[in-house]
Write a structure and sequence with these properties.
heterodimer, A: alpha/beta, Rossmann fold, seven-stranded mixed sheet, globular, B: alpha/beta, eight-stranded parallel sheet, 13 helices
Chain lengths: 200, 305
């Protein structure tokens, strides 16, 4: 039920936000870079990109974006989080900085760099529930490891650990669809964001 | 791009591909990479919001002052810095010194900087970077130099600037040269592209990619002489993807404050009001050097080709 072209914000504190903008626009959305609380107004959805979770969290706190963003997501703003974005959303973070307080709205526990350092970064084909059967090219870069899941739906796993989870209007991934050249997850997210929050 | 080292495992996964090597650089974009010489410095950098640190024994300003052969840092120092922070840790090896690079890879470092700041080990050849699982960043002064490094397997580029000077003028020169080199390609047909490749000593395949994308095909940071938030924002407005700050932070009066300000300036690089706010009350910046005051044979940017 699209009333207008779906508007997706991309958090632009630090990280691979330009890649998400490109993928979202290919998937048919309008985009807006989000750097202040005012940028949140009127969004249908938001992407928390990959980058350094410590850097992003710190900058959001400094400019007063952390709390308004948490409120918006808690009130049903559709959210796609990749890699560092997933860490920022997670309730529990292991091996983070002691004072690292992210949004804490996604009921999972993650270990930062849980797959190892950069020399262990990898690509792997993934089976994702709800996609059309063909595998999805997973790009994992110093990826977080999901060690605990609470009230979320696991839609993909790799080596017995969840790598994609869904909780209401939140879709969180350990990997980087914005680097894969495959737009299926961005299209799915734009579709989800375009639906009224109460219907999701 | 050649990927000679792909070892596909039973579950179809592959490590160390060019995609994941260049991908880490994409995650660093919009961020500040800071030179640190101790674990304590590294923690300050992380607290200030650095997206990565460069582990070194001496910052470039001290290398310049003390002279002598500058080499890869002691593995113990690098390991202590890797243990101190959760953000990516980079380290430098000498130009052409592929064994220093092998050692850094064995330490599990996240990125290797094949750097003109150290004394070159080979005056003709840079490292063949394709066989490594660990990604490399290399310096450049213009498009030709950037394209040669990319062809050798660099997954990230930085403009060289003149390290250890606290003077941004060379960083600006090199960033503008790369931009001008790419602008020049627009509208060229293939024959003209081949001629340009010959002129600037660049592989034509890399130039064709630059022409198609209107930018370098890998992430490009600025380095060498950035000392203030305004310097960082200047480089960002010139189109680089992020900045390295070497001596500029820990040679200043209040490193934590300055580091935080440079991080904020790199994110809000196009908002002058924000830049005015973060530039205020930082204490003294590093003293800095005029480029003509440096003897020609002590200019670091001229190392490498």
């Amino acid at each position: 039920m699209e009333k207008h072209q779906t508007l997706i914000g991309v958090l632009a504190m630090q990280g691979a936000f330009a890649e998400h903008v490109k993928a979202l626009e290919k998937a048919g959305a309008r985009t807006r870079l989000v750097r202040t609380r005012e940028d949140l107004a009127g969004l249908d959805g938001i992407v928390l990109p990959g980058g350094e979770s410590t850097t992003m969290t710190m900058l959001m706190e400094r400019v007063g974006l952390l709390e308004p963003l948490r409120e918006a997501i808690e009130h049903g703003l559709a959210t796609l989080a990749t890699c560092a974005g997933m860490i920022v959303l997670a309730r529990d973070v292991t091996d983070g900085m002691p004072e690292q307080h992210g949004l804490g709205v996604l009921d999972i526990g993650v270990r930062r760099n849980g797959y190892g350092r950069q020399v262990d970064s990898f690509e792997a084909p993934l089976d994702i529930d709800g996609l059309d059967g063909k595998t999805f090219p997973g790009v994992f870069i110093r990826a977080p490891l999901v060690e605990r899941t609470g009230d979320v739906q696991v839609i993909a796993s790799y080596d017995d650990h969840p790598v994609a989870v869904r909780q209401g209007r939140i879709l969180a991934l350990c990997f980087h669809p914005e680097l894969s050249g495959d737009q299926r997850l961005h299209r799915e997210f734009v579709r989800m964001a375009g639906m009224d929050g109460t219907q999701a | 791009m050649a990927e000679r080292n792909d070892a596909r495992s039973a579950n179809g996964s592959v490590k160390g591909s060019f995609k994941v090597k260049a991908g880490l650089a994409q995650m660093l974009k919009g961020g500040v990479i800071m030179d640190v010489v101790t674990a304590e410095h590294a923690r300050i950098a992380q607290d200030a919001g650095a997206c990565a640190v460069m582990a070194l024994e001496r910052v470039p300003a001290d290398i310049r002052k003390e002279g002598g052969v500058a080499r890869m840092s002691d593995p113990d120092l690098i390991k202590s810095i890797m243990a101190a922070v959760t953000i990516p840790v980079m380290a430098k090896c000498r130009i052409g010194h592929f064994v220093e690079a092998q050692i850094l890879e064995a330490l599990g470092i996240d990125y290797i900087d094949e750097s003109e700041v150290l004394t070159p080990a080979d005056e003709e050849n840079h490292i063949d970077k394709h066989p490594f699982k660990v990604p490399f960043v290399c310096g450049c002064r213009d498009l030709g130099e950037a394209a040669r490094r990319i062809s050798e397997g660099a997954a990230m580029i930085r403009t060289k600037g003149e390290a250890g000077t606290g003077n941004v003028v060379e960083a600006v020169r090199h960033a503008r040269a790369v931009n001008a080199g790419i602008r020049k390609l627009q509208g060229m047909n293939h024959a003209e592209l081949v001629r340009e490749a010959k002129q600037i000593g660049a592989p034509v395949e890399v130039l064709a990619e630059c022409q198609k994308l209107g930018r370098l095909p890998v992430v490009n940071f600025a380095a060498g002489g950035i000392a203030t938030p305004a310097d960082a924002a200047l480089m960002m407005q010139l189109g680089v993807d992020g900045v390295f700050v070497g001596s500029g932070i820990f040679k200043s009066e209040d490193p934590l404050k300055r580091a935080r300000a440079i991080v904020a300036a790199t994110t809000f690089y196009d908002q002058p009001e924000k830049l005015a706010e973060v530039s205020a009350g930082l204490g003294e910046a590093m003293r800095g050097l005029e480029i003509p005051a440096i003897p020609k044979d002590e200019l670091l940017a001229a190392r490498g080709w």
